[in-house]
TrEMBL record, chains A, B, C, D:
It comes from the Eukaryota. The lineage of its organism: Eukaryota, Fungi, Dikarya, Ascomycota, Pezizomycotina. SMART domains: Aldolase_II. This is Decarboxylase. GO terms for molecular function: actin filament binding. Residues 2-125 form the Class II aldolase/adducin N-terminal domain. It holds the Pfam family Aldolase_II. PANTHER family: ADDUCIN, CLASS II ALDOLASE_ADDUCIN DOMAIN PROTEIN (AFU_ORTHOLOGUE AFUA_3G01330). InterPro entries: Aldolase-II_Adducin_sf (IPR051017), Aldolase_II/adducin_N (IPR001303), Aldolase_II/adducin_N_sf (IPR036409).
């Protein structure tokens, strides 16, 4: 959240305003991730939440929210408070006209959820666009099946398991100095 | 299908449920591939099978099926049985609201088919989306031409030939220790 | 702007015609960037300017223009003059049927703006395409919020700060011989 | 056009059927390129030719053709003859339901044209898809401006100049043993 060089003191105030309020509101959260990925940005301009189009989107079934009250770049802790309140107990928020946010117990799950959420956005954007041409509506997963899938894939430990290979890949590329990928038990 | 570290015993139950039942039902199958690629996921939410839009899609002419009975993440062998039954003698299945699956005699052909199927999904999604804007319907290959093309490109040996360069590239990048790319005769 | 080998004297006349006129018209401009990126090209064929769909697009709020008078490849300084006139005091121009152009005080901000503008084009193209299928109009940022966001993110120093990591990455990859990433004060 | 290992004699018959007939019909052609790129495939399923949407597409103004007589994979020289006849004196053909083909005097220009044509397909697909959502028709370049641009960019020497950096990049990555990028005069 801080970027500084000897000749500057530019802190990422917006990042601090968001992250600090989420940690205040959610003591169970060990990590939150937020960025302006391309598909996340595009989806967050649609004013929609994720449709349950694939097994993977069910990880966010009843477990993500759209925060649609964009007030400009987040510079006051008030705005961070509003986002934290909207997020509630969920693992993800679509920040309207802004980008994606995921939160959870471990860094691994939060990174895995973020990557997964961005892919879900890409999938829904592409599927929606194609249906305009084919004239055939998309197929949605039923509520019962979505709930069953969330139960199987949507817990913190599932997310941790999903995130491990991402970190192990980084470790393999950057070397053991990264202290990552030490097993499935959170450090 | 198994991912384990000293401190865990998390097996990929879903993968085992799918793959084991396909191998049981299809003794000719030496390999099956399944993953949630982005374009595969998006296409599998459309409830459609591949249109014969390009020479390459004809590799799947009368040789792929949509399994549209998504019941949640596959945790019971029953679901794997259903998928294997739907696949039948074909080389590929679109698993509705889920992802792609290819099967065949050799690892090479199955990987080649998987990559090709994912590209066919990407092609159809992009072509459909564009036709919504142009207002001009896509051009479909005739049944006779599709059949002729399948005969020329759709056999196991064609797939093996298609897959070889993929493995040779991996071998060139990872070194000869991979025991891949030894010629066109399956090992 | 010049590409030459011992056996040739082919100069990029079009690039010179554009860049020289911008520097003549805008003494504050230390750098201008222009290229035919894929999403920039596609968006510049739509005859539209950026909608305020995301926080990032607000960097160009009332700060970009569409130059829609494509006369063929720019070979005369007259055409460069027209582009410079259309750009005015703004940081970016969408050159209709052509590509993107950004300009600013420092190389860092101009590169950051260019990358950001291209992503904004990609975002809007994907969001628009998806809305054709969903039937739901996109959500636009209000004028007040867009202005507030421009004030926070749209200044030259913000762009410089945004561009630094891009150059630091290049420096990390190509070595310290590049003389880049020396801090937040323009050299 | 030939792929062989000690244990096989599988030749790329389809490639030979296409390329040999083009060389027979066009003595001026030193090189032809054909492949099934993703965007090329998708565009070649639309039954359309390139609209003049960007400066770059004008390189193909009155200089490309749609061959819309897909008969299945090209295994007979007759089909190659038909393609060569359709191509005529032009630099590119969109092979319907199949893929892209470019031809020219030098390898450099042909590769540059191929890459450019594929990008033009990507641009038009994305622009069309977006216009379905925005409801606003795309802006087309006028005939006079397209012709002027073709005159400036569409000649063999322009293509050679465009292709040089592609080969120089390959040379830089693979070493001087590639005998590429020796200047702007064709070898």
């Amino acid at each position: 959240m801080l970027m500084a060089t000897p000749s500057t003191d530019l802190r990422n105030v917006a990042a601090f305003a968001i992250h600090s309020e989420i940690h205040s509101a959610r003591p169970d959260v060990g990590c939150a991730a937020h960025s302006h990925s391309v598909y996340g940005r595009a989806f967050c301009a649609t004013g929609r939440t994720l449709d349950m189009l694939t097994q993977d989107s069910c990880v966010f079934y009843n477990d993500h929210v759209l925060y649609d009250n964009f007030q400009g770049v987040v510079l006051a802790s008030d705005e961070g408070k509003h986002i934290a309140k909207a997020l509630g107990h969920r693992k993800a928020a679509l920040l309207g006209n802004h980008g994606l946010l995921t939160a959870g117990r471990t860094i691994e799950e939060v990174v895995a959820y973020f990557v997964l959420l961005d892919k879900c956005c890409e999938v829904q954007l592409a599927a929606d666009a194609s249906s305009a041409g084919s004239g055939k509506p998309l197929v949605h997963i039923g509520e019962k099946e979505a709930q069953v899938t969330w139960e199987a894939l949507g817990h913190s430990s599932n997310g941790y398991f999903m995130g491990l290979p991402l970190f192990q890949t980084v470790e393999a590329e950057l070397g053991p100095r990264t202290f990552l990928g030490r097993g499935v038990e959170p450090i």
